[in-house]
Structure formats: C-alpha cells, structure tokens
Amino acid sequence: MTDYKPFPDEFLWGGATAANQCEGAYDVDGRGLANVDVVPIGEDRFPIIAGKKKMFDFEDGYFYPAKESIDFYNHYKEDIALLGEMGFKTYRMSIAWSRIFPKGDELVPNEAGLQFYENVFKECRKHGIEPLVTITHFDCPMYLIEEYGGWRNRKLIEFYERLVTVLFTRFKGLVKYWLTFNEINMILHAPFMGAGLYFEEGENVEQVKYQAAHHELVASAIATKVAHEIDPENKVGCMLAAGQYYPNTAHPADYWAAMSEDRENYFFIDVQARGEYPNYAKKKFERLGLDIEMTEEDLKVLKEHTVDFVSFSYYSSRVASGDPAVNEKTAGNIFASLKNPYLEASEWGWQIDPLGLRITLNTIWDRYQKPMFIVENGLGAVDTPDENGYVEDDYRIDYLREHVKAMNATINEDGVELLGYTTWGCIDLVSAGTGEMKKRYGFIYVDRDNDGNGTLKRSKKKSFDWYKKVIASNGTDID
C-alpha cells in the first residue's frame, strides 16, 4: 500500500447530480415544462439540443427520459441516506427553475417547489451533508423559450434575478455554496440545452449565442451580488466544462490552435472571475462582425461582482491541430476533439487522462488564483449487475483512483487551492449528452433501462465501499 498525504481537513468529498437527469416528476406539484424535458433519446437528440431541430413539446414516437428519470423526487430520502452512508461531506445538485416559477416570469413562486427543495436540503443536513446547489443546470422553462426566445432576450436577466433572490432568501442557512450556470461554455456547443436557443432560418447564430452568453454572464454577476447581500456567508462559483487542449504536434500552428480552443472555453470564466471581457474576445467579435449589446451598468456589475471560486467538470483532455487535414475526432462527446494516440478511451470514446486533470487544475489556478472545486468527474460505462443488483465496477474504481492521485499531487506538490471533489452521477441517472441510462456513472445502481423499464430499485456497487473508504481516510486510503 502506497502512503498518500491527506487532503486538507475541510476538503469537501461528495458526488453530483442534476435535477433534469434524476428528479423526474416533470408535471407534479405545479412544475412547469422545461427545455430539458422535451429532449428525447435517439438520433434527433443532438440536433434538438444544438438548436437546429425544433421540439418545444412532447411528440408521438419519441421517448423522453427526463419525464421520470430515476424518480429522485419520490426517492430523495432513500438516496440521500445512501450518500450519507458513504460519508459524503457535500452533495452537488441543481434546482429545476420550472418547479419554482413554472412559466418563469411569474411574480410569486410555487410554494410546493420551494418546499420540496427545503425538504431535500434539510435531509442533507440531517446526514451531515453540505448542499452545493447549481441554480441553472441546463434548465430553462419552456414558456420563457416560446414567449421570449430563451436567453437571447434580455428580460431573462430580470426573471433569473427574481429566481435567485427567492432561493437565497428561502434557503439562507441551509445552503452556503452556489453555482450560477452549469458548464456555461456549453452555450456554444449545445445552445438549446445551455440557453434555450432555437435558431430560425437565416439567423446569425454566433451573434445570438454570444448575446445570450452576455445575458447569462450579467445574470451570474447579479446573482453573486444578491447572494452576498442576503447572506455574507454565501460562496458563489462559476462552472466550466474544462479539459486542457494539447497541441497535436510541436508545430507552432498546432500550439496556436490549442491556445485558441482554450480561450474559447475560458472566455466565460475570464469574465466571471476577472470581471471584464478579455481583449481577445473583443477582437473576435470585431472579426465576426458581432454587435453584442451591453450597457455601462452591465460592465459595472460584471467588474464589481466576480465569483468567489471557480468550479468545473473534467472528463478528458483534448487535442487541437492547425492543419485542417488532421481531423480524426474522438467519439461520443459534445466536446469531441482530435484523438490522442497516447490515451485509452471509455466505451463512449472519451479519452482517459488523469494527468490532464492536474494540468487543467494548474492552468486554471495560474489563470485566476481563485479557489477551485471539481464538481464533475467520472466514468460512464455499461454496468452488468448480478441478481442482487451488485456491480463489480473495478474499471470505475481504477478511473477514479487515478484522478484522486492527480488531485492529491496538485494540492500537496503544486500548492493549488482545491475546495472539494464531487464525482459525476454518484447515483445512476440519465445521460445529458445521449439520454441513455445504460451509460452509468454511479456508486449506486438504479434498475432502469434506456426505454424506461425497471423497478427503480437502488443497490450498492463495489465502488460504493471504495469511495466510502476514500472519504473516511481523507484521500489516504485509495488502493
């Protein structure tokens, strides 16, 4: 057994889920319809989440996995008890906006939705778990999309401010850690999922995406301001879909391509963490002929209300080339990149690179010098349970162990400030990218398949006890 240095005493070990991927109960207790509800499994899923195919309601001939998902809405006590048994210090989860404001533009919130989340947070506290709450995790009421055009419309800033004011007020003392938008850079890659954007024929897609991004960035800064005003103990973070780009070769054109790809992703966090638009982004808008409407008050609020910490998801590093002839891409990921011949890949083609996590952590630390939080990391795999629902998922343990080692080195050898680590999909849930259930990440197996069949029975995998041991030892017992 190797001797590993412990993580910091206050390190927050835990796991993460999203409302639309686990709650279900899409039409219960006054909840309104959301964009994430009307995205089906199957070949039309990606064109819909990319804003290229219009689907604003349920249609015949499709299966919509978010309708029921794993029914966390009715199983939350059982599920949180299992997380507590593992020793979780924190549980990252998200709010379904349309549970609080079913249409999105109401003046008065839905009490049943607020009460549900209050019950969930109290249940977490009962088990010694600190909630880490994503306010918007690919979640926008459909009414705001149909009536206002989603985040392209400046009015959504006002609606979002109303939402966060209600949340910060109601849950003061129950929730301390907040994230404004999940994977905010996803707006460039899956704009209907990320910002409720559907593009009409002939629209300037880049103009719409970056205008919507500006509205989200201003809304995030306003949320940070309101959070600190309502409770100075609140800590607000941004959230990035991260993964360092490597140049394909030592050719300078490849290095420039990698740097440009990184900038596209870090642009959002540059604004949220530093408080202003970077020059490279302003020049990009000029080159593309984009006219992003922004007021002096927008720039002031961005400057004065930067985030307290930077959080991100990390699944893989990426590769870029300046040579258009080099184009063999990885499979299965919204962030497909060039293949890296030095790395193995998951069953969905996501390349596995634990050292890339250390590189990404150091890059973000060097860039911002703000505390960081890894809020998604995990291995999506097909799990085959025995008759008791038990899964021997050594492949998942191996993946997580190597990433825990990388975090340990980053903290203890590089001196990076890391607040915590929440593995993605700590209980099996619906995949955001593909809509599948068979792409499982959890320590807890849920009996449900891609077609919605199954008992929803929960059972522990081998990784459940492994992660429990990791947390109990504060990262020193990982073999």
From TrEMBL:
InterPro entries per record: GH, GH_1_N_CS, Glyco_hydro_1, Glyco_hydro_1_AS
Transmembrane segments: none
Any single Pfam family the record assigns to this protein: Glyco_hydro_1
Residues at the catalytic site: E376 (nucleophile)
Superkingdom of origin: Bacteria
Signal peptide: none
Keywords, alphabetical: Glycosidase, Hydrolase
Family: Belongs to the glycosyl hydrolase 1 family.
PANTHER family in UniProt: 6-PHOSPHO-BETA-GLUCOSIDASE (PTHR10353:SF296), GLYCOSYL HYDROLASE (PTHR10353)
Protein known as: 6-phospho-beta-glucosidase
Native source species: Streptococcus caprae
